[in-house]
Amino acid sequence: MGSSQHGAKLLVGVILIGMTALAVAESRQEYHFKVHRHASVTINNQYGPVSVKAGPAKRVSVIAILKSDKVEVDKNQNGNRVVLKSHLLDGADANTGRVEYEVLVPADANIRLNSTSGPLHAENLRGDVVIEGNNAIVDVRESTDGHVHVRTLNGPVTLTDVRNGHVEITSLSGDVVLTSVSGPFVNVNSSSGKIRYDGDFGDGGEYSLTSHSGDIEAMAPAYASIDVTARSVQGQVDNEFPLQPEHTSFTMKAGSAFAGTINKAASSVKLFSFSGKIHLKKKTK
Amino acid sequence: MNCTEFERALADIIDDESCRTVEHHQHIETCSTCESLVDDLNAISEEARFLEREAEPSARVWNFIEIALRQEGLIRGPQSVIAVSKQKKGWWRSVWLVPAAAALLIVFGVRYEHTAPKALLQNVPLAANDVASSDDDQQLLQTVQQRSPAMLASYQANLRDVNAYVHDAQESAKRNPNDEEAQQYLMNAYEEKAMVYEMAMDRPLQ
User: Fold this and answer.
1) What residues are paired with B57 via a beta bridge?
2) Is A153 near chain B, with CB under 8 Å?
3) Which of B176, B188, B203 sits opposite A116 (nearest CB)?
4) A213 lies within 8 A of chain B by CB
5) Are residues B96 and B137 in the same domain?
6) Which structural domain, as residue segments, surrounds residue B92?
7) Distance (Å) from the alpha carbon of B22 to chain A's nearest alpha carbon
8) What pLDDT is attached to residue B47?
9) pLDDT tens-digit profile of B89-136?
């Protein structure tokens, strides 16, 4: 009995020491930068999440939680440009090199986020948003007027309530989901990732959803006003809207292509896949 | 006034008849060749006014024309695009280019469409489902392997995907050289491949 009690106490002691060691190694740092209108904020964080939201004007506030002492944050401000970089020290890996960023920026700031693992989140911004990630989950919400550019190899991309800006997404195998996204120019290019669009295609924009082998699904309400062309070389295409036919420069093969206008054809929509399926659905209330 | 002198002055007098001197009028009346030239230019000028903006060929067409003319040695120098001048003065010089370029395009266009797309596409010859189809791909994978062996499998899969994309896009563009959307599709494929390279080279891999 005595030896088992001693063993239990020893085990608890080891656990407590381990947790303390981790707590000591993990550190929280805060930075604040004064900026003017249309500040530029760049964050390079190889491992760990980055979340950027709109905050007070003229100020960039950063909370960085460093998971170990094998990573440090290099910070630099030149005028209206702020750059934060997670600097991995010798021996750092995906766990010990992890930094979690929570950032508040002025709504009109232009932000650039680079990460291997992410996830990367941007919300309620009016400036340009440029995001690059290998496998990072990318989530952009409630962005208005700014351009949104996302490049990812394998991470899924979600855009929600993004309006009035240019949207360009290039994804290799990550799925791309656009919900209530509209603007003068929306371009999604995917190799094997699926593309899903749920919105009304706005008024007067150009939308291009292109995939090599991923399926493309576009869902729009009955009042959508679009000039749509859909083609798949090897896949099946189908459509739930009654289309006013229009002349095309390519040969229309039933089941592989359709083209026509809906209502006043305010926006141009091109859906193109090599071997994926294309489906244009009408939203039911 | 002889024909050479008349042609030299033509740029100044073709737009504005009030600039024509008695010598110019006399030469036109006595020289049927120059009279025909003036009539042709006036006719082109009239027709050009009715050309709508939408009828202007796309930049790609002008590039094709330029490449064809360069191949024939008819143009040299650093200019990248033949532009139809929009200035009123001397407009006829540029307008002459339009029918001349169109004629060249008709004569050489078929040959160009057969050779140039192949020439462009031969830079990246790909077979379907190749992981590393070129020396550049091999080098990229070697770099990835040296820097981070754990990422090698992921980049192999990425390259396999994107090479299949490029291959299918090349085939589609070859089959449909006049299809702008097929050409755009090919550009999209190249963009994807460029992204794979940039991501592998720009970012530290661990």
Assistant:
1) none
2) yes
3) B203
4) yes
5) no
6) 53-122
7) 53
8) 65
9) 445 555 555 555 555 555 444 454 444 444 443 444 455 455 666 888
